[in-house]
Amino acid sequence: MVCIQYTVSLWLQRVLGATPTVPVGNISQVEDAVYFRIYYGQTFKVIKNSIDGKSYLLIQNNTKTATRTKYCTGRIKSFVIPLSNYSIDTQDFPGVPVSFFELLGLLGNLKGITSDSVTSECLLKSCAGGDIAIVNKSDDQQLTQFAAHFISNSDQQEACNFAMFLPSAEDTPLQRAEWIKYLGVFANMEVRANQVYDEVKQNYMCLTNAASSKSASFKPVVAWIQYSEGVWYFTDEAYKMKYVQDAGGENVDESINRNTYNISIPDDLENFHAILCTVDVVIDETSVDDSTQYTLATFLRNINVDDESCFAFLTNQNVWRYDKRIHNSTAIDWFDGAISQPQLVLGDLYEAFFPTGNYITTYFRNLAKEEGIVSVGPEMCNRQSSAAMEPILVPCQ
Fold first, then answer.
1. Structural element, H or E, at residue 227
2. How far is CA 193 from each of CA 68, 169, 319, rounded to the nearest angstrom?
């Protein structure tokens, strides 16, 4: 890795004829994330993104080369940093997570979004105040006016100012959260990015250790399930499995995760119910048009049960959904804020697995207790939009 970093740095120094301007210590080192790496020269930085296969050459704006050097090829793009302004694609599901920008205090330079289907209170406030415009993602002229346009869809046609930002591609919660360092490089805010990630990681690890002690004698069996067109699926995405393990639970066996169950087929329904009888906690991921209308009655109708006595997760009121924080009934903060602050997700799951009754969850709501949603709106923004949002740390000893 050292050899590669030196080679990249030496080549670019020769090309750019650079002089030192990068402050000593204002650097980030990737500890956990897999899909990006950062390299530093004296007046430039390089991000190698394994998702889109591109290298982003970031040139400091106080150098002569900033105005005369421009790359836009299949393998390399250049940007002048810190970015003077930028836009983000909030339309493609799940969209670019806005919360990373908020944690760095970068909303002040955000000038365009492709949809107001977001769960950021302060972004919604800025939109309402006219500080951020909604731009047409199909209009190249609108998008090219920005110094950078951050996207999450790797299949999207890319202009020269497009930059891929996709934390959700990573396999573990902390790997996903570390993408704040990726973003910090574009703004010369590595110190802030490092600080936020360190706080998040320390809190996450503290909760993991607490859960490990708590689950020494009992590990609840947890199933992530979803329903679509009469069929139930057990979902097994790696980061969700990791959350369960870190919160002190045990995932449903992998052999079960591969199966699907059609409730209109008696044998399938019987097998599905048999498996559910072994589960202590259910997380229902069923996608719906309006989360406010999804209740315990909806869930029970979908699993087609007459007798609830067999199911421990019903008896103990442990049926959850991660759609507690939403905007306009459809934009769910699970796909935004939960990515940048996984310690809050872990705190929620710890409460679900080992309930205390005195912890208010952030992203999960309990269907079995008829818990409703929290509707996110601009009136909930309690800080200056351009001010950095502080990570919320879960009490942990």
1. strand 221-228
2. 29, 19, 35
- DSSP designation for 42: S
Distances (CA, A) of 100 to 24, 195, 221, 367: 24, 13, 32, 29
Count other Cβ atoms within 10 Å, centred on residue 310: 13
Contacts of 348 (CB under 8 A, 6+ apart): 361, 362, 363, 364
- CATH superfamily for domain 200-380: Nitrogenase molybdenum iron protein domain (3.40.50.1980)
The backbone region for 202, taken as left when phi is positive above 0, alpha when psi lies in -120 to 50, beta otherwise, is alpha
Kindly report, residue by residue over 201-217, the tens digit of the pLDDT. Answer: 999 999 999 999 988 78
Looking up tokens 């208010």, which residue turns up?
A: 360
DSSP of 103-165, one letter per residue? HHT-GGGEEEES-S----HHHHHHHHTTSSEE--TT-HHHHTTSS-EEE--TTS---TTEEE-
Question: Mean per-residue pLDDT for 337-357?
Answer: 97
β-pairing, 133-134 with 110-113? parallel
Give residue 76's Cα distance to chain centre: 26
Which pTM was predicted? Answer: 0.92
**pLDDT, mean over the chain:** 91
Q: For residues 276 and 282, is the Cβ–Cβ distance under 8 A?
A: yes
- The span from the CA of 296 to the CA of 214, in Å, is 29
Reported as half-sphere exposure (CB side, CA atoms, 13 A), residue 32 has a value of: 18
Pairwise CA distance, residues 72 & 79, whole Å: 10
Q: Name the amino acid, one letter, at 75.
A: R
- Enumerate the domain spans of the chain: 2-93+110-116+131-187, 200-380
Kind and range of the H or E element at 45?
Answer: strand 44-49
